Each structure stands twice: as structure tokens, then as C-alpha cells.
Amino acid sequence: MSPVSLYCLPYAGGNAWSYRPLASCCAPNLTLTGIELPGRGRRSGEALCRDLETLADDCFAQLRPAIGRGPYALFGHSMGALLAYLCALRIRQAGLPSPEALFLSGQAAPELAGKTQRYRLPHDEFIQMLQTLGGCPPELLREEELIAYLEPILRADFEAVETWRPGRQESALPIPIILFRGSEEDLALEATLAWSRHTAAGFELHHLEGGH
Q: How far apart are CA 69 and CA 46, in angstroms?
């Protein structure tokens, strides 16, 4: 089989290494590459970005040189799902070869994404929200030095998602969308099924055990 590249878009607070554990589950012909956002990882010296469209521009700029070298797909969880979708729109607009599929998880369709303002919560309430959301071991959320580093990144990412509004209605993408939904996460089934309206090439929904 031909080698396939899987480019992974980070969730809130994530970096290019966040999906590294998935590499051990990948088929031999699948290469997993994480995309790095400003303000974290090897780009920790750069200013954080609080605008989702600007983050999508940044991700697309990183992807663009590799597009056309062979088959590839995009994967994004939570915020990363929106970034993967926005990158796919930019790829289509630029007339570049489409990804084989969009693999998305933990995120409602763009038009139904939550419009909360969690990024404005006071410190204690913000940490409590992260504990409720899941995805981060509780003991790590008690490490003051780690929280001092992560909180500004998380707040910037939450702000980017929660202040974003879709632009004009886009036509369905010619790309299959494969969506994963945790059995215990607080995400309405209807909000995930709505992703089917964004593809003209097939939609699949898979339920997995666990939370967000």
C-alpha cells in the first residue's frame, strides 16, 4: 500500500507531540505528524493567538508545502476538529489535492459549536472546569508550575474557539468525514450528526467508550 501521511491538528492546550501516543497504533504505511501552534512546544517563544481563523491560516501554511507529495488525511480533536475543517476549506480554495478523509472527534459541527465564555472564568473556576471536562489527570491540575504555564495557552485556545463564528455558508466538501464521539462526553448526538451536512463524499459516526 502507498504511504499515507496523517496530519494532526492540536486540541486546546495541545502541541505537536500531543498525538504521539497514537503513533504506536498506526499501520506501518501511516506516518503521523503533529502541527505546532504558536506559543507552545518548539514555538513557545511566539505570541499566543486568540483567533481561530488566524490559527487555521497558520496550520494551512505548515501543511501547504507537503500537499501533493502523496495521499494524506487530517485528524483533529475538539479545537483541532475545527482547525482540520478550516484547513480543508483553505485547501479547496487553493485548488490543492484534497485529503483522503477528515477524521474528527469531540466537536460539534461548526454551526452548532458552543458559544460559552469559559475563557473568562476566574482561575479557580477555570481549573474546576478543566477537571470536569476531563482529558487531563487531576494530579497534574494540582501542579502549580504546570498550571502557570498551561493556563494562558488554554485560555487563548478557548477564546479562539468560543469567539469564532462561521462565515458564509460553505458548500459541502468532496472529502469523507469520519467522526468519533465519546460515550460519556457532554456532546449532543445531533450536534455531531450535523457534520454530515459538510461532506458530499460520505459520513461515518463511531462511538467510543469514554469521555472527551
A: 29
